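hey can u check if this looks right to u? its 121 residues, i copy pasted from the old doc so theres a chance i mangled smth
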Amino acid sequence: MDKWLWAARFFKTRSMAARACELGRIECKGQPAKPAREVHAGDQLQVKSASGDFQVEVLGLSEMRGPAAVARTLYRETEQSRELRLKVAEERKAMPHFEALHAGKPSKRNRREMDRLRGRL
């Protein structure tokens, strides 16, 4: 399982794929999959990763990690899964974006703005 997930480019390393299996983020036919589980063509997998939740059908097997174009031929994502991922991506884009705090001491201008906001003129 971990080798196929790595070859299909769901995870960057085999150890990350194995860890996802151990944490129960990979399901095969509705049951949690172990890293050593054999993958067969026609299996239905549910993969939860940082890039989203995928429901895929295994079309081919590979022991080697190849280019992304080849990796996409190893599985077919369901329409329902694709629509849900696109919907979540749209919601994420609509969320307000906050700037990270500046590291270090505020500038004189920033300090004046903070004082003005706090009512200390």
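The radius of gyration is 22 Å.
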